[in-house]
Design a protein that fits this description.
binds zinc ion, single chain, about 35% helix, about 20% strand
Length: about 350
Amino acid sequence: MAKNSDISIQVAPGIYRVRVPIPDNPLGHLNCYLVEGKNGWLMVDTGWYTPDAFSALEAGLRGLDLGFADIATIVVTHVHPDHFGLAGRIKQISPKTELVTHRWEVDLIESRYIRLSDLREKMYQMLARHGVPAADLPLLGSASMPAIQFVTVTLPDRTVYGGEIISTGVYDLELIWTPGHSSGHICLYEPQNQVLFSGDHVLPKITPNISRNVQSGDNPLGDFIGSLHKIENLPAKVVLPAHEDTFTDLKGRIGQILVHHHRREAEIKEAISQRPLSAYDVSSRITWDIPLAWEQFPALHKRSAVTETLAHLDWMRWKGQVERLEQDGVYLYRAVGA
Ligand SMILES: [Zn+2]
Ligand SMILES: [Zn+2]
């Protein structure tokens, strides 16, 4: 029977957490969860592919008297580098470990990590259409590229759609499709002890980035809000997020996230009430959780601001509150009836 160690902490019956460091990132770490099994354990999310992250994960396993070969299954909640980065490395060491992702994440593995130049080109075109000034395009268009070095690319052994049960022989975990933050994001639910693994879908303090970009669906914020409602009444005694700390009030936290998005929507409505604006111009006028003037925003923040604003504008279009016009190749948005 495995025991608690300094580096691997028990967070629920038969479930342990290893904190895997994320370099140069305000999130600090990814929570990798290990679920006890009869013939092999289940790992939920892996961490970035860096020597430090790899050592932390290895030490976490060792603290439970485990090695990578004891991991029968890895489920990645989505393929962002902090969750998926080490999956390929683990598979090199333990080829029998089965990697599971949602079907929609497979396309993202290809476009994010294999056919990169297509993605960069499409991102430039998209940002230009949404009003990003030509001078900012090279920096904003490639703002997330450095993350690629933290991933050992591999493809899943098994793809899922949500609704499947993964059994470790001790626990049965239900996979729940929760698109929004990523189109194939999944949560896992263990009903016996009412434990929810919430990935990046619901975090206790930060609100996940919901962006309309070249890889997202055409209404990611609408998807996200639908996915919040999908799980809000789930009986969950313990919520295990992919970042930050364990929490308990799932419904209360979901309520706060919905309020955050309603506020932002109201601000956007106000910004476009006088005249039509591009997504870039809207994002420069609304409030962001960063204590800098818009001109001083780092490229990645600026790009997220534009793509998050766009997710809002598209959701508002779906609801019939906003319409889109085109002027000199740039999309402008205006409030319906303004
Ligand atoms: Zn993520
Ligand atoms: Zn994450």
